[in-house]
């Protein structure tokens, strides 16, 4: 049974000051079973991030359906759920990692990760323990644990962003270029977490430009110019 089905998805954007409407993506179809990982590939500007943001409901689709098999609500169309339902899903079931970190002001790294776990109704003691484990895993310097992340470097912010999203062990995880500004050692840490989440049943949709990083992780690849196919049939890695 599919955990996620994207059917005939399309999205337009209107440039109001020019009076123009542009088609970002159209006729997108793919499905994923629990624990599968699909990599979306295509040239810059082809609409890869638009797909992820529409699954996360940052954008509202113009056409088609995004059917997700929720643990709480059963099969639902993410294009049509209420804001309250979507807020619940973001807190408890669907994670999103982008290249950028948008966080609450005057909140430390440690507090941000603890907050993510407390939203999952984890006890405070467990939230504190797991937050420290995540900070250690992603090798954030201890002096940064109780520091506001607006002072961090790009790579430090990205590692924190990944830690916040993955510590919750979401049922569905969306990854938008999460290794873009990381060094090789940090990429290894990200890969370890992805492998563990996948082994534990997390379903993943990702965009990556690092071919070596993706080797052996993806089950399927969706080329923006074609349909998704199993990687073993095409011999294709997930390349952006």
Automatic annotation (TrEMBL):
Transmembrane segments: none annotated. GO terms for molecular function: ATP binding; ATP hydrolysis activity; lyase activity. Gene3D superfamilies: P-loop containing nucleotide triphosphate hydrolases. Residues 4-240 form the ABC transporter domain. SMART domains: AAA. The lineage of its organism: Bacteria, Bacillati, Bacillota, Bacilli, Bacillales. SUPFAM superfamilies: P-loop containing nucleoside triphosphate hydrolases. Pfam families: ABC_tran. The keyword Cytoplasm does not apply. Keywords: ATP-binding, Lyase, Nucleotide-binding. Belongs to the ABC transporter superfamily. This is Phosphonate C-P lyase system protein PhnL. The keyword ATP-binding applies.
């Amino acid at each position: 049974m599919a955990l996620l089905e994207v059917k005939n998805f399309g999205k337009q954007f209107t440039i109001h000051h020019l009076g123009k409407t542009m088609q970002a993506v159209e006729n997108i179809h793919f499905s994923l079973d629990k624990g599968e990982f699909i990599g979306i590939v295509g040239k810059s500007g082809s609409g890869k991030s638009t797909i992820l943001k529409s699954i996360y409901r940052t954008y509202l689709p113009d056409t088609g359906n995004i059917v997700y098999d929720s643990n709480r609500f059963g099969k639902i169309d993410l294009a049509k759920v209420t804001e309250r339902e979507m807020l619940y899903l973001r807190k408890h079931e669907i994670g999103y990692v982008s290249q950028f970190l948008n966080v609450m002001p005057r909140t430390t790294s440690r507090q941000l990760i603890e907050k993510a776990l407390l939203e999952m109704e984890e006890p405070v003691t467990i939230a504190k323990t797991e937050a420290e484990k995540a900070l250690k895993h992603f090798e954030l310097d201890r002096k940064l644990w109780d520091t506001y992340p607006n002072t961090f470097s790009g790579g430090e912010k990205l590692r924190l962003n990944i830690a916040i999203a993955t510590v919750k062990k979401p049922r569905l995880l969306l990854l938008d270029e999460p290794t873009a500004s990381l060094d090789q050692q940090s990429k290894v840490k990200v890969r370890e977490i992805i492998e563990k989440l996948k082994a534990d049943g997390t379903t993943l949709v990702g965009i990556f430009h690092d071919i070596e990083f993706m080797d052996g992780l993806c089950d399927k690849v969706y080329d923006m110019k074609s349909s998704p196919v199993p990687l073993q049939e095409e011999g294709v890695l997930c390349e952006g």
